[in-house]
Amino acid sequence: MSGGADRPPEGYLGADARIGKGPAPEMVEAGYRLEMADAPLLHRGSTLADLAHVIALSELGVIPTGQQADLLGALLELAGIQADELDYDAGYGDAYNARERWLAERIGPAAGWLPAGRPRREAGRIAFRIALRERVLDLAEAVGRFAASLVEVAARHLGTVMVDYTYLQAAQPTTFGHYLLSFADPALRDGERLRQAHAWVNRSPGGAGGVAGSRFPLDRERVAALLGCDGFIEHTRDAMWQTDGLVSLLSAVSLAATNASRLAEDLEIYASDEFGLVRIGDEFCRASVLMPHKRNPYALAVLRGGAGTLIGQAAGLMVTQRTPSARTDNLLYAYGEVCRAVETGARLLQLAAGVAGSLVPNQRVMAERARDGFAQATDLAEVITLETGLDYRSSYRVVGRAVARALAQGKGAESLDPEAIDRASREVRSEPLTLPAEVVADALDVASAIRARIVPGAAGAEPMSVMVDDRRRRVAELTSWIGRRREAAVRAEEALLELARERRAAAERGA
Q1: Is residue 511 classed as helix, strand or coil in its secondary structure?
Q2: Is residue 175, in this structure, part of any structural domain at all?
Q3: Model confidence at 13, in pLDDT bands (50, 70, 90)?
Q4: DSSP string, 324-387
Q5: Mean pLDDT value across residues 449-474
Q6: How far is 375 from 365, CA to CA, in rounded Å?
Q7: Which letter does DSSP use for residue 234 in this model?
Q8: What is the pLDDT of residue 293?
Q9: Which residues have C-beta within 8 Å of that of residue 289, sequence separation ≥ 6?
Q10: What is the C-alpha separation between 418 and 420, in angstroms, rounded?
């Protein structure tokens, strides 16, 4: 069907009585083709939505027995057809019209029961949510894998000393394990956000009718259960037009990608020859076509660019919500865009998980950087305060003066001996400051600094062991939840199809 001046062909049930001509070619190209492009995405969910609706109608006793058998039989046939086997022609307007036309060609007037008490948007909204809930679980699984990779690599490097960097300046001694675990925690929070998003997605708008409800007294709880949803959206108008959950979902997707991107940003620096702190697996790098010495961390560019793209999509979706209520433009672009964004997020997080699992720290370089710089300066100031009772700001100024002199003389942290501290104290405070040599040596020892970090959440061995065990438990809990949700959706779909077969058989016997 190409559209234009002719009326839609006979049997085109999507046509309204007030529409006297077929769609203009411009309408098909700019609008209908956009909607029909999402048909494969909505195909399976649309059939499940139709089956649940017909069963709910049949349980009310409003569909004649023979037509009930015909309609259920045709829908069961449709359930076995792939999207590319159906004539999803953009000239028919949208997927709903194309499907209704397919049904009308096979079963005639029996297809006319499908829109009873239900606008096309209800079927589309249900199909969209069914498509989304699978993809949200895919993304949650990828997030869980990313967190698990970080936790396991961190567990192998609880004692691998490195310098933590802030503003790309050496800050304090830490461990590679503690550094990596700082990305696992946001990933686990991403998992929690996705659980919340799934709870929103997995609510049924079924049985809502147009906007104010319908004269058909459908059991909305029953429809939700048939679809494997966790209840229904109560307010009928809100059920048809709510989109805030989509914004929350894409915000969660972009946050998950951004967390992975932040690690990628660091790794691009730390894995460079200039830093040389860590090596990324060859399988996540790409050789330069021109320069034979280069080993480009291509995966990191994918992560960074992907996160930026998803942030833009989240912002774009939010902008489309700035319309009056109950407008098609709120969702016209959302079906495909949101699902593709979630799919992109899942691919990015799977990639991030692979990158994290491939990391091999250069322990020699890490130890040298931690030992040869002035990352121990804070520890030295803290030791002075703890040993002498001098207030911390004064200790800070004394150590700062000693570090400045060492740098001016081209010396390293080894020059911060008791004499250097005493001299700095006399200059800053006009008072001597005597410290035992062994106290200063212990303060400047990186391994000792790590051992001293014993507060909850710190880089010391004991708090790190506690955190690793806890994060493993949380990853396992997220993984278990994903499995339960997948199984529940599969069981619901299988039960719906089986019930449809049973009701069709019963209707055929009754006819």
Answers
A1: coil
A2: no
A3: very low
A4: -SS-GGGTTTHHHHHHHHHHHHHHHHHHHHHHHHH-EE-HHHHHHHHHHSSTTHHHHHHHHHHH
A5: 95
A6: 14
A7: S
A8: 84
A9: none
A10: 5
470 within some domain: no
Let me know whether 69 and 13 are in one domain: yes
- Considering the domain architecture, whether residues 360 and 401 belong to the same structural domain is answered as no
Residues 206 and 137 in one domain: yes
Q: Are residues 331 and 412 in the same domain?
A: no
Inside any domain, residue 456: no
Round to whole Å and give the CA distance between 295 and 284.
10
Task: State residue 66's pLDDT score.
Answer: 93
Alpha carbon distance 424, 400 (integer Å): 8
Tens digit of pLDDT for each residue in 178-205?
Answer: 999 999 999 999 999 999 999 999 999 9
pLDDT band at 18 (very low <50, low <70, confident <90, very high): low
Average pLDDT over residues 282-306: 91
CA 342 to chain centre: 7
Pair (83, 150) in one structural domain: no
pLDDT exceeds cutoff 70 at 1: no
Residues 351 and 387 in one domain: no
Ranges of H-type helices in 171-243: 176-201, 220-226, 236-241
- Identify whether residues 360 and 244 lie together within a single domain: yes
Q: In the predicted model, what is the mean pLDDT of the chain?
A: 92
pLDDT, average across residues 241-253: 95
What residues contact residue 484 under an 8 Å CB cut-off, 6+ apart?
A: none
d(CA 499, CA 76): 11
Alpha-carbon span 379 to 174, nearest angstrom: 12
Instruction: For residues 479 and 72, give the distance between their C-alpha atoms in angstroms, rounded to a whole number.
Output: 36
Dig out the tokens for 351 from the structure: 């990639």
471 domain-assigned: no
Q: What is the domain count for the chain? A: 3
In 3-state terms, what secondary structure has residue 281? coil
Its pTM stands at 0.92
Structural domain boundaries enclosing 416:
377-444
**Six-digit token pair at 338?**
């949101």
Residue type, 212: A
pLDDT band at 75 (very low <50, low <70, confident <90, very high): very high
The dihedral built from the CA positions of residue 255, 256, 260 and 266, taken in this order, carries a sign that is positive
Average pLDDT of the segment spanning 31-59: 94
SS3 190: helix
Q: Give the closest residue to 250 by CA, choosing from 308, 318, 351.
A: 318
CATH of the domain at 297: 1.20.200.10
pLDDT class of 7 with cuts at 50, 70, 90:
very low
Residues 6+ away with beta carbon under 8 Å from 100: 13, 14, 111, 114, 115
Residue 267's pLDDT is 97
Tokens read off for 56: 């709910």
One-letter amino acid at 71 equals L
Other Cβ atoms less than 10 A from the Cβ of 303: the count is 27
Long-range contacts of 381-386 (CB under 8 A, 24+ apart): 382/443, 383/439, 383/440, 383/442, 383/443, 384/421, 384/433, 384/435, 384/443
Dig out the tokens for 298 from the structure.
């291509």
